Amino acid sequence: MLLRSAIVLATLIVFNKVRSFSNNSDDAEKYNVGGVLSDFESEKHFRLTISHLNFDQNYKTSRNMTYYGKSIRMDKNPIKTVFNVCDKLIDKRVYAVVVSHEQTSGDLSPAAVSYTSGFFQIPVIGISSRDAAFSDKNIHVSFLRTVPPYYHQADVWLEMLNHFGYTKVIIIHSSDTDGRAILGRFQTTSQNYYDDIDVRATVELIVEFEPKLESFMQHLDDMKAAQSRVYLLYASTEDAHVIFRDAGNYNMTESGHAWFVTEQALSANNTPDGVLGLQLEHANSDNRHIRDSVYVLASAIKEMMTNETITEPPKNCDDSGVNWESGKRLFHYLKTRNITGETGQVAFDDNGDRIYAGYDVINIRAKQKKLPVGKFYYDSGKATMRLKINDSQLIWPGKQKKKPKGIMIPTHLKVLTIEEKPFVYVRHLTDDEVQCMEDEVSCPLFNTSNGIGTKLKNLTNSFNSSIFAWLGFLENDFCCRGYCIDLLKALSQRINFTYNLALSPDGQFGHYILKNSSSSSLPPSPPRKEWTGLIGELVNERADMIVAPLTINPERAEYIEFSKPFKYQGITILEKKPSRSSTLVSFLQPFSNTLWILVMVSVHVVALVLYLLDSHEEKPLNLSSAVWFAWGVLLNSGIGEGTPRSFSARVLGMVWAGFAMIIVASYTANLAAFLVLERPKTKLSGINDARLRNTMENLTCATVKGSSVDMYFRRQVELSNMYRTMEANNYDTAEQAIEDVKKGKLMAFIWDSSRLEYEASKDCELVTAGELFGRSGYGIGLQKGSPWTDAVTLAILEFHESGFMEALDKAWIFHGNAQQCEQFEKTPNTLGLKNMAGVFILVAAGVAIGVGLIIIEVIYKRHQVKKQKRLDIARHAAGKWRGTIEKRKTIRASLAMQRQYNVGLNSHTGTISYAVDKRRYHRLGGHRGPENAWTGDTDALRSRRCLEETAKLKHSPKIHAPLPLLNKNRQPINLLPPRYSPGYTSDVSHLVV
């Protein structure tokens, strides 16, 4: 730092010195080129190159254009170099300065030249300075070089790693500017410039050490614990000597390890056999670089003169306010050069650093012999750099001909998963449970955001442990089972590894966050991506594998490794199967409303016509009987009452019976058609359905907010109209949306096909609509360069071929219900209670009406019975009253007759009874003598005998009864005495006076 301050101070002193101006006028076609060179040979070659340039018309715009070389010797004292540049170069009005230095002098003198010339915007072309500091354009504003900086070797490292297939490395670098720059270059180039490489190298461990090492032992333990066995070393020759010494003591330079080193480390005198290093082509050919730098300058001046005017450069260092604008423009033209020189293809990047520089790939052999085994060269046909290595000539550490694997393959893996039905079911252990069930695997949860994670356990080496989880995870409080768990078990058995399983730290698959790099490495790196969730754990190498429904996409594949998909899936639509409208009158659906009305009208019209046609017959149908007949024929219920009597009415009845047969048969057939027709499986045909693209008010669709499906719709321009409509309906979780689909609140839920197929298999009323879109697959996630990638991929392919994956689909996704749902689909549609509710309501209404009529009829009949009883009582009373009157009349008549009889006894012989009987009942006086009437004959006996005789006369074929006596109204007269007449008696002795 003191030396750099002295350089700046000396520069200011020179700027303030009083100098005399030269009165010599310079020709406009004269161009002075300065040179600060390390030795006499370089100066000589510089002047020779300038003289040759003047004879090359390809680099001149006119014949009068002449270049002059002004060179000085590089001084080890940078302060003296500053004064020499001002006195001997700037005074000569040089347009540019070519600078080199001796290896022992360091970069301070070239830096002094760059500071001084850059102050006046005079371009400086370095031919040997390779430090990263010269890439900083804030300090070295007009410096460019024909040699690449040391940190550009990171580009060759990446090509070599890609050639050998190494994907995980350990970088060892010094903590100076160049060491940090090579690390930044490696990481930046890996991300930005090699996107087309399928397998990209990732850094597992970064080992940074302070220069001037005495021991490297403290870093070797960390390196040995890492998986990678590929080391990238940037160190000075002295530091590399210490690193190789200590690494050899740890046997880390023997077989199984691979070392890639830079040029400085390659020069260590104890470099192990089999180390691969780089050597810049023409690194020590100053003459070649001098020529290339002069011709690059001439090319830039020529093009600049063609496009614009070049003003004269500053003449002295007195005026600190001089700002040569043409110098800025000339530096810009220099950076755009791309010529073929003696050192190869010469071109520059924005920092003025050489690109397209060639390297030799050096393999260290016994006794420090350096054998070139490959080249990193410019391919003019493809205009890019290519690497070519002769693998057959390579010797690896331990004198092995076979390439080391470059990684220590672990057999106990840290596996992450996440709860996602039906792939992973998570169950919390109850208080009385000690370990998981047989078909489950312990999966502890670690989530520091929820305050969990205070109990950490050491990494266990036991596969069967159910008490401890691997480092960073809690006690075994959770158990997991499902599709992915069965897959993990099968993989562990197939490719022979043990594992500890744990749930996602934050319950997410993971997304990236852009963060600006705080590193001070040069060049500045772009914002880097930091991943969260499962991906973050894998990227940060805190886990070895992810076994979950992890979607394969390019963003994730940039940072982690994926196996071949174990399940292919996409995006689909879930909806509820459409069903027929179930109304109270569903049983009327076979006929239209108009037809039903016409049938009803026809019944009553036919009944009326039957009544009219039958009215003139002897026993005609009344109107009610005609209506009953019409309904009975139609409903085939039998005819309980009369039938038509007239011929015309009977003809009409036959026609009506045919009509009824056709109507009933048509209704039955149409109803059967309604039952056997399959209902449509889906309402929508898929994502291209016009009802989705032009969303209607009665069709609601949705997805989950902020999900990958949501992002898919945002990216698709053709779905923008649909997305604007569905955005307002989006749900927070898939469970809520699926529940609303079941309830009918949501018509279409757009989500991951595997989950929706699982839901459709559980509930046969749900169905996925249309074909999959946005297709992707689920894969096993691994670290970049994981040695298990190929083995896992091959195992998954074998599982597909053997049918194991199909068995997992049936067991977990379709739940064994696929056949049941298929049978449900094939079953014809049937009428249920909803469809036939109207029929039952109709019957219930008929029953209710019948009951009501019965009640009315019973009440009416009770009223009639009471009325009839009253009439019967009245008739009985009237009868008794009439009987009493008749009795009294009879008694009076009997008394009168008795009196009359008594009077007759006094004047005639015989009894009064006989005389009376003979006069009133002449039949009795046939052959019976009067004496018989008085000999114990009662009235009853006489009446019976009289009736018997009359009956005999009536029924005898020979004896005819005499005609009854008729009164004047021709009605028969009853000559028998009344049974109840008490006035008639055989004993009338009491009447004798």
Automatic annotation (TrEMBL):
Domain Ionotropic glutamate receptor C-terminal: from-to ranges: 455-815
A single GO BP: ionotropic glutamate receptor signaling pathway
Site (Crucial to convey clamshell closure to channel opening): L684
Binding site for L-glutamate: P549, T551, R556, S708, D752
Subunit-level organization: Forms a heteromeric NMDA channel with Nmdar2.
Family designation: Belongs to the glutamate-gated ion channel (TC 1.A.10.1) family.
Name of the molecule in the record: Glutamate [NMDA] receptor subunit 1
The organism of origin for this protein: Glossina austeni (Savannah tsetse fly)
Source lineage: Eukaryota, Metazoa, Ecdysozoa, Arthropoda, Hexapoda
